[in-house]
Design brief:
Elements lengths: L1 E4 L5 H20 L1 H11 L2 H8 L4 E7 L4 E9 L5 E9 L8 H12 L5 E6 L4 H9 L3 E6 L11 E7 L2
Parallel strand pairs: 4-5
Antiparallel strand pairs: 1-2, 2-3, 3-4, 5-7, 6-7
């Protein structure tokens, strides 16, 4: 498995990965209908394609030549010293194999000027919280609009000092 920059040819596989991982992760929390609604809004080919050219961002995939098993997307905030990890997902069949850590490490290396890596995580997503805590993140607050302005989805905010 290797980590590389995502390209337009990866977008359908990324969309499928996000749909599968969202259902595996969030169906029990939000329900299938709500997960379908969110994934159909947030993971469209157009929204994924826009990330490819977003300034001050990094859009990565973990690829073994046959399967895109993981994806990560991060972008600088208004404060160039703070980067927000907007997505890090690994297909359920590939979890616990170090892929998430590989993606996270590459994200951290992609922003050498940053001092802080910030993310939002669903409070009921215990596996994700364990992963981020094991990778040096600490809880730093809460958000009421996880993922998108006006989403109404509460989340915990975690941060990691870089450098």
């Amino acid at each position: 498995m290797f980590v590389r920059t995502a390209s337009e040819r990866d977008l359908e596989a990324i969309k499928a990965l996000l749909t599968e991982t969202w259902h595996a992760t969030y169906d029990a929390i939000y329900g299938v209908e709500r997960v379908n609604e969110i994934t159909s809004q947030w993971h469209t080919p157009a929204s994924l394609k826009a990330r490819l050219t977003q300034p001050n961002s990094e859009f990565l995939v973990a690829d073994d030549g046959e399967t895109i098993a993981g994806v990560a997307f991060a972008a600088a905030t208004d404060d160039p010293k703070v980067v927000k990890l907007r997505q890090l997902y690994v297909l359920p069949a590939f979890q616990h194999k170090g892929i998430g850590s590989m993606l996270l490490e590459e994200i951290e290396d992609s922003f050498p000027e940053a001092h802080t890596l910030r993310l939002e995580v669903e409070g009921a997503n215990a596996p994700a919280i364990r992963f981020y805590t094991a990778n040096g993140f600490t809880e730093a607050g809460q958000s009421s609009d996880c993922g998108a302005a006006g989403s109404g989805i509460p989340a915990l905010v975690f941060e990691k000092r870089l450098g």
